[in-house]
Amino acid sequence: MSRTLVTRVEHWPIAGSFTISRGAKTEAVVVVAEIAEDGRIGRGECVPYGRYGETVEGVAAAIAAMAPAIAGGASRQDLLRLMPAGAARGAIDCALWDLEAKLSGVGAAERAGLGPLRALETAYTLSLGSPDEMAAAAARHAHRPLLKIKLGGAGDPARIHAVRAAAPDSKLIIDANEGWELSDFEYLMSVCLEARVDLVEQPLPAGADDALADLPRPVPVCADESLHTSADLPRLAGLYDAVNIKLDKTGGLTEALALAAEAERLGLEIMVGCMVGTSLAMAPAFLVAQRAAFVDLDGPLLLARDREPGFRFEGSVMFPPAPELWG
Hints:
The protein is of the alpha/beta class. Helix content is 32%, strand content 23%.
């Protein structure tokens, strides 16, 4: 066996801009790992996230540093020991899944013990803006069954009411991105209840979420920034009702599948989310999303263009990926 690992950085323009409480961006900068063996190439994509101290340069360097280990036959299980959870490990792990599928002729879904993949309905994300801006965006996408709304703290009640008025029939996920103050939590939850919100994602900072143990949750609350791997679940199980699994946090599909199984065992609902990336990043997450109550894999829908072939979407419904894309 002779395996080679290469990495590259790609820039994909976003349609307009994408804004959350931590800032705005107009392009998705992704890092791709490619592992070649016997004329086959497995690919994995990740999006470094500054919230966790990651940079594009650092993640690309961390992937490149694994070239000797991959050449020596390091497996996905070895990666769990050799690398910390995060974007770099995620790209390599997903590239290994893809390579294994190509070499064996057995698809990744089957190797993961899944049946035939089914089409899924994804959320569509509305960027943070003024209430009027977000209402206008909600009106343009009111035909979508599930909308995810980025919030930012001050002014959030007005944003929630504006979106609900503009999209009266859509289910709503609220993503606070750690932006709420503890003193405002109960009031903001009452606003969400009145607006028929289905899920509130990471309302409090990750370091302050112990307070959730003593707070009423009339709307289910989902951990995002507080959750990385299955090791986090014992603490979170008493604080949250759901967990958002992202492969850039778990460090790939291998840990994401284990995390999903353990979350289910603990009675937590599963959401599968993404960073803004191409269909190559969504494809392995799509496997985990087969068991999710909430799917948020709209990254390609937010781009001005996607890679070819990419996911096929009909409105908010995404269909299983073609083998030429991944897996």
